[in-house]
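Usage

Read records sequentially. Each one opens with the input sequence:
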Amino acid sequence: MESLKLSYLCTLIMKVTEHLKAANDTLFSFEILPPLKGKGIQTLYDGIDPLMEFNPKFVNVTYHREEFIYKERLNGLLEKIAVRKRPGTVGICAAIMNRYNVDAVPHLICGGFNQEETENALIDLQFLGIDNVLALRGDSIKSEPVFLAEPGGHKHANELIQQIAQMNQGHYLMDDYKMDPTDFCIGAAGYPEKHFEAMNLEDDLHYVKKKVEAGADYIVTQMFFDNKKYFAFVDACRSMGIEVPIIPGLKPLKSLNHISFIPKYFHIDYPVELSRALNKCKTNQDVEALGIEWGIHQSKELKAAGVPCIHYYTMSNSSSVKAIASQTF
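and closes with the structure output:
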């Protein structure tokens, strides 16, 4: 019985690109945050359970790097203390795959890791049968005005992608040891409204192309609220010879705070029609209802256009995504 169960589970382990290739229609996927430190794993499951009826083929799990605080000691000196607010992504991915029989896609970031630590994380993922990763540079921590790479680490996502691709070819940091090649499907980020550090969209597209040339198998976009910008981004990528699948990412608006926070933090614009409607919202409930309505509109249009998958950023609060998916999938 156990061998049959193991065989069944093994058949479910697929790469994101294999899921996309096998699909006859637009797929549904979503991203969750690891729970805050001290919360039980049921908190995580409570955000996933309501969305399983839409048959997600993969679930992304974000990674949050350590932050640092400075605590004054009795001698007056300051001690730098690492603070980690959320549990590890690797263990969470294993738990998700075990409970739901669905592929998990851990985020792997440059910030806070040197190349040896990155390799060790990838070895752990391979051992657990997790063969999908989303490779990102990651954000700077609050105490840094700009992103700073860890000593011996990567400055850019394409460098991280290249390391993963080299491991897929059997090339490890310590080539003195004969090791089997990994077999990771590598995702990368794309920005329909450009990364905020890029000089312009054309400049940013060159970085996207570098990621693909380094070994990225597909792209998942930053959130956007104007589908025209996604379609234009895809066209621009294709014109540059970027042919990998490009998955649109959507985030439902849920609170009054989102109205100003999202454009500021994620460097994106609201379409005029949406901004006018948001200006009329008086409560969080008003924003949430509008976010669901707008999300349904975006999702239906994208699905009608034949996008390979629609990826939702839930922030582990799945109620709005469930309402949108129920009208779309």
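Summary fields computed downstream for this record:
- Confidence is low (pLDDT under 50) at residues 1-11.
- The beta strands are 27-32, 58-61, 67-72, 78-83, 103-109, 132-136, 185-190, 218-223, 246-250, 309-313.
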